[in-house]
Design brief:
It is globular, with a radius of gyration of 12 Å. The protein has one domain (2-82): Alpha-Beta Plaits (2-Layer Sandwich), CATH 3.30.70.20. It has 4 helices and 4 strands; from the N terminus they run βαββαβαα. By secondary structure, it is of the alpha+beta class. Bound molecules: FE3-S4 cluster.
């Protein structure tokens, strides 16, 4: 599977959802997750994310391994998103800010 990681939090650009052939993205208030049960590892979303938040599960950055479990946990709880929508209002300012996990709204 592929995994949405920390830099998506408070950015949520949603470009990723437009290319997903299996509609495996699910939307929360300030973050998206990939359903590991649906992802076919097509890799198309990786290049679409303007803030580089999506990784294959074997290549998740050190310290962000917990996002595998977070994606798996939240995907069944959040609705599918398959159309792009505006990014979060302060997306530019949040790009690259460390330790955003504590800001995740479930
Ligand atoms: Fe998040 Fe990047 Fe998609 S910021 S919503 S993973 S395009």
């Amino acid at each position: 599977t592929h995994v949405v990681t920390e830099n998506c939090i408070n950015c949520k650009h949603t470009d990723c959802v437009e290319v997903c052939p299996v509609d495996c993205f699910h939307e929360g208030p300030n973050f998206l997750v990939i359903d590991p049960e649906s992802c076919i590892d097509c890799t198309l979303c990786v290049a679409e994310c303007p803030v580089g938040a999506i990784y294959p599960e074997d290549d998740v950055p050190a310290g962000q391994e917990q996002f595998l479990a977070i994606n798996a946990e939240l995907a069944p709880l959040w609705p599918v998103i398959d159309r792009k929508k505006p990014a979060m209002p302060d997306a530019k300012q949040w790009d690259g800010v460390p330790d955003k996990l504590k800001l995740l709204i479930r």
